[in-house]
Write a structure and sequence with these properties.
The complex is a heterodimer.
Chain A: E1 2-3, H1 4-13, H2 24-36, E2 59-66, H3 81-84, H4 91-94, E3 115-118, E4 123-126, H5 130-133, E5 139-146, H6 152-161, H7 171-179, E6 189-195, E7 217-219, H8 237-258, H9 262-284, H10 291-297, H11 305-319, E8 324-330, H12 338-362, E9 369-374, E10 378-384, E11 395-399, E12 403-409, E13 416-418, E14 420-421, E15 428-430, E16 433-434, H13 435-445, E17 454-457, E18 460-463
Parallel strand pairs in A: 1-17, 2-8, 2-9, 5-13, 5-16, 6-7, 6-8
Antiparallel strand pairs in A: 3-4, 5-12, 9-12, 10-11, 14-15, 17-18
Chain B: H1 3-22, H2 35-51, H3 65-68, H4 81-87, H5 103-114, H6 150-161, H7 172-183, H8 190-197, H9 204-214, H10 217-230, H11 248-259, H12 264-273, H13 282-287, H14 304-324, H15 343-354, E1 356-362, H16 368-389, H17 392-408, H18 414-426, H19 430-435, H20 443-455, H21 458-463, H22 465-484, E2 490-496, E3 503-506, E4 514-518, H23 536-544, H24 551-564, H25 585-597, H26 602-611, H27 613-616, H28 625-628, E5 641-642, H29 645-656, H30 711-715, H31 734-742, H32 744-760, H33 765-777, H34 783-802, H35 809-817, E6 825-826
Antiparallel strand pairs in B: 1-2, 3-4, 5-6
Helix pairs in contact in B: 2-5, 7-9, 9-26, 10-11, 12-23, 14-15, 16-22, 17-18, 24-25, 24-26, 29-32, 31-32, 32-33, 32-35, 34-35
Classes of the chains: A alpha/beta, B mainly alpha.
């Protein structure tokens, strides 16, 4: 579609036909443009762009559960494991298995969780997720996810950049590059974080080799939601506006002198910055949300408060036209003490996640918002014990071979389970869904063909799904 | 739309008129088309992926005359299937992906067929960049009085062909700011500007250029561009992202190399193989730090073979991109789809590096060795006594026995398995060192292992509270002892080691599928590959050999790029068939030969370019010119170039008088808001602001933590340091605006600039503002600008009259000044 040089060209001519709200530089350049005759070619890199084909979803909210939540204890019950509990599996099953910490001879750990079927669809969900259980009919669980990386950072790179290598664009950046953003007052790709930092860090939402315009903007948990959003002390809104007016006039003066269109785009960037300063407080102001809504998310109580705040923010961002929102919650990397640690994360996230789905649905937004839940891999049926002297500290190692994720809304057929793992959740028996397939499906729901969403870099066309990936038909509504 | 679109544009605007005017007319009076020059590039770029060496879909190859004849009817373009396919006349259209061929491209193909479809005897690709470099004769120009040197003659000849006149020279103030930013990366001071403006000597300009070239800041400016290519960082990357406290030693080496004008051939040789030189000095070895910028994954559980393979791949990729301008990385998994780089070529290059290992060496700074050696006997005595007192040798020996057993019997003891996983990821060469008998280990290995043991003594001692406490006590005392004695600085280098075995081709790029064994060797499609070649030093010699067509071209192109904002080959990282073609091929070759003639001297070549009229032109666009040449490929003017992140910071600190001009040394940490560093793994990273004036040092010294880089650098397009970057992207974003407006670092600079205006300038508003403009922009303000800022000044004064906490209007003016597009642009 585009490459660096083309992008540069667009940047130099960008934003001449911005909506009325923007484009101070627009007016200044109207003449230049008319002479130029190239007006039609002008594009703002973040302006909404036509998808490849009409998409079902307009926005995406990715609920990233960093570290690898245990599918065995949440979505994929395996009663058969009871028989093996505490025993090693036969070598025939484990011989090609690559593991991060434990050995293939490690003993099996049956789940201590209770599973029940919920809703009309009868999707099985563990007792750790009682709130999600109430919206079981709105989600589709994929039990047959698989990835290639068995360490965190590579796993996260695979999930978000479609490769084990660092430096490639992330899913959110690709989507923004493909579709632009509806919002002219907020960044098009927003990242919200709770819990600890992630192994992948910036690479999970980086623009990679795409122009940095497409990278995710991290909203911060404390202080300014966007870095340097607040004016320094002593600079009121009035004072900021006076500065920006002078800045604009001086920049415009210089534009006339040099004829460099970059200056027009710089002027617009300052205006967008100001609009962000105005829009962000409104975005973060929950006072107009009803009490019922706040309660439904759990915004005003622990331990849900931080994640609930992010979930509610996610809805408000999407509502305001932000294309991609990614929520990162770390960490689900439960090598030890899985029963306790998993419960803690579920207690933090379960209610807000379910509330987000209900809220989107009741506002009629779920149809055009794709919600994805999952981590970079799952966890082993075998147990991991790091310190044998402490009782009850069993956890599970990384398991990229077969794990679960779920999707909802945005053109996903709800209320079903896709894929099947074997009796021990060791391998996939039916309908394997590779990370690349997931990515292809996500892009497809947004109206993007993953084979056509490409960018030329260092002499070749790159895409999110590298050279593979198939849209998963069973997931489509 | 792709480069192809760009190519189409050039064809229509530039090449087509060129053909029309200057090429010999064919029989039918239409301009003559040359296969190699005009047709083959279209085939290579748009068709070769499916109808080239790698794939021959529908049995068609457009790199093969015989095969191609199936779709070509010489003399009859209308009947030729090729034309029917690319125009869509046959119902289907080729190429099926990407943009259609442009009208001009189709016209070239049609004319070529109508003119008889002449195909040269050798159908081997004749890509320009693989051809030998010869020194072109200076071009003939009509307006010979304009040209100051041969560079100008090449540029002017091209402009005259297009009937475009060059731009007038920029005014002196602009010129000095341009050269200052380009050569040393700092804006000029008002005194420097004044000196230049009043210098009436005929060689005034040359004197300024020479002054800048001699500045110790020259090395800082040019080192940063090189560090982008080395993909320098101060941490490992990946999950753990451990800090590399001595990474700066390599950075200092690069700065120093530029400052003393180390010839490029020597510069390259030392970085590739400084350690292999007979009697290599410590400095020579530090140069190999170029290859220590690869990331290291210390996540427990990482497969060490895979990690090393990834590092080798990175080293080969960097070698190709940086020294040769070719995308060898594309051949990791298969033969290159567009360029004649075989997969085997990739692994033969990899074989040079397969024998090289990472080493962390003592690299004392001046003055360290004496006190270190003097204190050594006392230190050794105390250390031995301490280890003895706590019986460390015995405990460690028991631990090693446990560890070796766990290595031999994986899966038997889970807690020991975890220890092994951890030590392998976190402690380089764990297996080898632990299996080497105590007396055969090097001194450094012995010390590291003892340190490791004391910090992670394993489950056996961990379970026994008394012993655990004893070990901790020993560790604390040893740490204390280390702190109280002088230590030697270190450096990260490469050195040869024999135990890596033979390199193999990795089938489909997968290290787990070794194919044929390969020996070191250079790519077959480039000349000089037959000589016996085994070591990295051999590789360096080949790269720098006279017959290598790429090295000098690639190097001078980057120098040009730094001085014009764009290379003669715009894709400075790709000289292959997918890259851009040179806008001035003869100039490029002339510069390449000139570089060698000047003894590979950067300063001499930069001086020649800076002396040219081409460089000194105004960067303003002219009516009409913008229409013909919006990207300024023809160089009928200079370009306005947005400053890099580092230089924006440096300019603000320089203008405000805050800048600490010390050259070299460890990385620094300026103010960073809470919560940024904590986004890294486990929120364990902390950012402790540098004390004193250190935090006002130049941008290139800012600590680069790979997973949580300094936000200002990210905002202003600093590359992410994962791969070699030869040209930065530049973007305009609202986050940049917020950063310059509100980042405390910049707000502090605005305040400092305001106090300079208050204390160093006198007189009325316009006199003070003039001083502010000279500090910030290196020029005086216009009447209009004075009037506009006076009106702002009044407004802010009014705000302040009502609100005592409001900022001083001069702080406001300074803040505006440092946010101007002009402030962050070199004109």
């Amino acid at each position: 579609m585009m490459d660096e040089l083309t992008f540069r060209r667009i940047q130099t001519r960008r934003r001449f036909f911005r909506d009325a709200a923007g484009g101070i530089g627009t007016i200044a350049l109207a003449n230049l443009l008319a002479q130029d005759g190239r007006a039609a070619a002008v594009t703002n890199p973040l302006a909404p762009r036509k998808p490849h084909f009409p998409g079902k979803a307009k926005n995406i909210i990715f609920l990233f559960m960093e570290g690898g939540p245990s599918q065995l204890d949440l979505f994929d019950p395996k009663p058969e494991l009871e028989k093996w509990d505490g025993k090693a599996l036969p070598e025939s099953l484990t011989k090609n298995l690559q593991l991060a910490f434990i050995k293939p001879t490690a003993a099996v750990l049956a789940s201590r969780r209770q599973f029940r079927k919920y809703g009309q669809s009868g999707i099985e969900i563990s007792d750790y997720l009682p709130h999600l259980a109430t919206v079981a009919d709105d989600i589709t669980v994929i039990r047959s996810m698989h990835s290639e990386a068995f360490n965190h950072h590579p796993g996260q790179l695979m999930l978000f950049a479609g490769t084990l290598q660092v430096g490639r664009p992330s899913l959110g950046a690709w989507v923004l590059y493909g579709l632009g953003s509806e919002s002219q007052n907020l960044p098009g790709f927003v990242v919200l974080s709770s819990g600890a930092g992630t192994s992948g860090g910036e690479s999970n939402f980086s623009s990679g080799f795409l122009p940095s315009t497409y990278g995710g903007t991290m909203f911060r948990g404390s202080g300014d939601p966007i870095l340097y959003l607040s004016n320094p002390e002593g600079v009121s809104r009035e004072s900021q506006r006076a500065s920006l007016d002078a800045l604009r006039d001086l920049n415009q003066e210089h534009l006339a002198k040099t004829g460099d269109r970059e200056i027009a785009s710089r002027i617009d960037a300052y205006e967008l910055a100001f609009r962000m300063q105005m829009a962000a407080p409104e975005l973060l102001d929950f006072s107009k949300e009803s009490k019922a809504t706040l309660e439904m998310y759990g915004v005003e109580k622990e331990p849900t408060r931080p994640y609930a705040t992010n979930c509610l923010l996610a809805r408000r961002l999407v509502e305001r036209g932000v294309r991609c929102v990614m929520l990162m919650h770390a960490s689900w990397d439960d090598h030890t003490n899985i029963d306790k640690k998993l419960k803690k994360n579920c207690d933090i996230t379960d209610q807000p996640v379910a509330a987000l789905l209900k809220d989107l649905k009741q506002r009629g937004m779920l149809d055009e918002t794709l919600v994805v839940w999952g981590g970079e891999f799952g966890r082993t049926p075998m147990c991991e014990i790091r310190n044998p002297s402490e009782a009850d500290n069993a956890g599970r190692d990384h398991h990229p071979v077969a794990f679960s994720m779920w999707m909802a809304g945005g053109g996903i057929k709800p209320g079903q389970i896709v894929g099947r793992t074997d009796e021990l959740c060791f391998h996939i028996d039916e309908d394997p869904v590779h990370i690349h397939d997931l990515q292809a499906t996500i892009l497809n729901r947004l109206g993007l063909d993953h084979t056509r969403l490409t960018y030329n870099y260092m002499g070749r066309d790159f895409r999110l799904t590298d050279v593979s990936g198939n849209v998963v038909a069973k997931l489509l509504a | 739309m792709k480069f192809r679109y760009a190519a189409g544009l050039i064809c229509s605007v530039f090449i087509a008129p060129f053909l029309a005017t200057f090429a010999a007319a064919g029989a039918d009076n239409s301009p003559s088309v040359d296969f190699v020059r005009d047709v083959q590039p279209i085939f290579q770029r748009r068709c070769a992926a499916c109808h080239g060496p790698a794939q021959h879909l529908a049995g068609l190859r457009l790199d093969d005359r015989e095969s191609a004849s199936r779709v070509i009817q010489p003399g009859r373009s209308g009947d030729s299937r090729l034309i029917q396919m690319v125009t869509g006349a046959s119902g289907k259209i080729m190429p099926p992906v990407g943009a259609k061929l442009s009208d001009d491209q189709v016209a070239i193909l049609s004319r070529w067929i109508d003119q008889g479809a002449k195909w040269p005897a050798s159908s081997a690709p004749q890509h320009w960049a693989w051809q030998p470099i010869s020194r072109p004769k200076a071009a003939e120009v009509r307006n010979s009085s304009w040209a100051a040197n041969d560079i100008d003659r090449f540029v002017l000849a091209r402009l005259e062909r297009e009937k475009i006149s060059p731009s007038p020279e920029a005014d002196r103030a602009t010129l000095l700011r341009r050269a200052s930013l380009d050569l040393i990366g700092l804006p000029p001071t008002p005194q420097e500007i004044e000196a230049f403006l009043s210098d009436t000597r005929p060689d005034a300009w040359a004197r300024q250029v020479d002054r800048l070239l001699a500045s110790p800041h020259f090395g800082e400016r040019w080192a940063r561009a090189w560090l982008d290519m080395a993909h320098y960082a101060d941490s490992d990357g990946f999950e753990k992202d451990l800090v590399r406290p001595w990474a700066w030693r390599y950075r200092d080496w690069v700065i120093d190399a530029y400052n003393r004008d180390l010839p490029y051939d020597r510069f390259v040789t030392l970085q590739i193989a400084g350690d292999e030189l007979p009697s290599a000095t410590t400095e020579d070895r530090i140069a190999t730090g170029f290859y220590r910028q690869t990331m290291t994954n210390r996540e427990a559980g990482v497969d060490q073979r895979e990690a090393r393979f990834d590092q080798l791949v990175d080293r080969v990729g960097a070698t190709g991109t940086v020294f040769l301008g070719i995308t060898v990385r594309c051949s990791q998994c298969h033969d290159h789809k567009y360029d004649p780089i075989k997969q085997r070529d990739f692994y033969r290059l990899l074989a040079y590096f397969n024998a090289a290992d990472e080493a962390d060496i003592d690299a004392p700074l001046p003055g360290e060795t004496g006190s270190y050696l003097r204190a050594r006997p006392d230190y050794e005595k105390r250390r031995a006594a301490l280890l003895d007192e706590y019986g460390v040798a015995e405990l460690q020996s028991q631990w090693e026995t446990d560890m070796r057993r766990a290595m031999d019997e994986p899966g038997k003891q889970l807690d020991w398995d975890f220890q092994i996983t951890e030590i392998r990821a976190g402690f380089d060469h764990a297996d080898r060192i632990m299996r080497t008998p105590q007396e055969k280990r090097t001194e450094a290995e012995r010390r590291r292992l003892t340190e490791r043991f004391l910090h992670s003594p394993g489950p056996r001692f961990g379970a026994d509270k008394t012993i655990a406490a004893k070990i901790k006590e020993a560790r604390d005392k040893l740490d204390e002892l280390d702190r109280s004695f002088p230590a030697l600085s270190m450096a990260y280098v490469m050195e040869d080691r024999s135990d890596f075995g033979t390199a193999h081709i990795a089938l489909r790029g997968d290290w787990k599928s070794p194919g044929e064994a390969v020996t070191p060797g250079t790519p077959g499609f480039l000349p000089g590959g037959n000589a016996k070649s085994n070591t990295r030093l051999d590789l360096a010699r080949w790269i720098l050999s006279e017959e290598n067509p790429l090295t000098a071209r690639v190097a001078v192109n980057r120098i040009w790029q730094e001085l014009f904002g764009r290379g003669i080959v715009a894709t400075s990282d790709d000289f292959g068939t997918q890259g851009d073609r040179p806008t001035h091929p003869e100039l490029l070759d002339w510069l390449a030969t000139e570089y060698r003639r000047l003894g590979w001297s950067n300063k001499a070549l930069i001086r020649e370019i800076a002396m040219s009229r081409t460089y000194r032109q105004s960067s303003a666009t002219r009516p009409g010119l913008d229409k013909i040449d919006p990207e300024n490929r023809l160089l009928a003017r200079q370009s306005r170039v947005r400053l890099s992140a580092e230089l924006i910071r440096d300019s603000a600190l320089q203008a405000s008088g805050l800048l600490d001009t010390d050259v070299g040394g460890p990385s620094i940490k300026p103010y960073q808001p809470d919560g940024v560093a904590e986004l890294g793994y486990g929120a364990l990273k902390k950012w402790t602001e540098s004390p004193g004036r250190e935090k006002y040092r130049r941008g290139l010294y800012i600590h680069y933590q790979r997973t949580t880089p300094y936000p200002f650098l990210v905002n202003f397009d600093e590359p992410d340091s994962t791969l070699s970057c030869t040209r930065r992207k530049t973007s305009d974003t609202a986050l940049q605006s917020l950063d310059l407006l509100n980042d405390p670092v910049f707000f502090e600079a605005a305040g400092a600039l305001a106090s300079r205006i208050a204390t160093e300038a006198s007189g009325d508003f316009s006199a003070r503002l003039t001083y502010a403009y000279e500090l910030g922009l290196g020029r005086a303000p216009s009447e209009k600008e004075i009037a506009r800022l006076a009106s702002y000044f009044d407004a802010q004064s009014g705000i302040r009259a009502k609100d005592a906490k409001a900022i001083d209007p001069w702080v406001g003016v300074s803040r505006i000044l440092m946010n101007l597009d002009e402030f962050i642009t070199r004109e």
